Hints:
This protein is mainly alpha-helical. 77% of the residues lie in helices and 0% in strands. 44% of the residues are buried.
Amino acid sequence: MTRHYTPTVKDWLSLLLLILLWGTSFMFTAVSLQSFSPVGIVSLRVLIAAIILTFFMYAKGWRLPVTPLAWAIFLLLGIMGNLLPFLLISTGQKDISSGIAGLLMAFMPLATMILAHYFVLGESLNRFKIFGFALGITGVVIVLWPSLVGAHSNLLSGLLILLATFSYAINTILVRRLPSYNPVVTAAGVMIVSSIAIVPLWLWQDLPWQQSYSLNATLSVLWLGIGPTAFATILLFAVIGTAGPTFLSYINYVIPIVAYFTGALLLGEAIEWQSLAAMLLIILGIALSRKRVAA
C-alpha cells in the first residue's frame, strides 16, 4: 500500500459489507436470545468462526504456531477481544434493545483513545480528544439517564454493554503491544482457544441437546458465527491490507446508525429522540477526537 493510496470501489464495497455485518450483529443477537443463553450464543459464535478461519488459514498455506508464548497471547486476546465482550453484550441485550446496544458500543473508539494515552507511545491526549471524549460520555449518559432516574431494570445491562467497549479497547491496546503474527493465523488461534475455554461450560451449563430452539434463533446464531465473526474477520484484514486502518476507521461513524435503525425497522424497537441525540453526540465526539492539533 502506497502512502497516497486511493481506496477503490472494491475497498468501499468491502467497507460497506463490514458495516452491515457488524451493524446488524446486535439485531441477530437479539433474535438468538429468544432460544439461546448468552453462553450458548458466544460458544457457537466462536466455535463456528474457529472452524471457518482454520480452514481458510490452511487453504492459504499458513500454519498455527507451536510456541507456548503464541498460544498464551491467543488466550489473552481471546478473553479480552471475544469471550468477555461477546458475553457482556449478549447478557446486556437480554434487557435492552439491539439498537441501544449498538449505540453504546460506538463509545469503543473513545475508550481506546483514553487507554492509548497511558499505554501507547505517541497517543497523548489533546484538547480535541478530551472534548471529543466529553461529548461521547455525554451521549452515554443520555442513553442511560432514564435508568438512572427511574425504576428501570436495564441500567446494569447498559453498563455491561459499556464495559464491553472497554474490553474491546483493552484488546486493541494489547494487539499493538504484544508480539504479532499473521493476522488470519492470530484470528484462527484466538477463536480456537476461545472455543476450548467456553464450549465445555456451555455443554455443562445448558445441556443443549436437551433444549428446543426456534428456527429463527438457530439461523441467527449460526449467522453470527459465519458472518459478523468469521467472514468479517477475513474481510477486516483484507481492507486493512489494501486501504489501511484509517480508511477502516470510518465504520465507527456508521455502525451505530445501522445497529439502531435495523433494530427499529426489522425488530420494531422504539425510536426515541434521546437516543438519536446521544448517537449524534457520540459520533461527533469520535470525529472531534480525530482532529489533529496544529504543530
